[in-house]
Amino acid sequence: MTIWIDPFTQHFGVEPKTGYDGAENRDREFTVDPDIHFEDDGRDAKNGMIEAVEFGPEGTPATSSIESVRLMDRLTPPSPSRAPPTG
Questions:
Q1: Centroid of chain to Cα 75
Q2: Could you tell me if residue 85 is inside a domain?
Q3: According to the model, what pLDDT value does residue 62 have?
Q4: pTM of full prediction above 0.70
């Protein structure tokens, strides 16, 4: 199972990995409120999507998963690594 994030459209969801058994309709997609945005660990997006967490068949996250993602509201200042330069 993969949890993906599209930071530009404010969507995220889950989808099964290809080749695993189960119902075909297990994909889920959600939209966050316009006042909320994603802040990820800076990993490159593929086709605008970030594969945030990939779970193996036994339910453990893959080591290739991102280290962190934050849901930030519009009133929360960005983390120091994402803050605009001053001066």
A1: 21
A2: no
A3: 80
A4: no
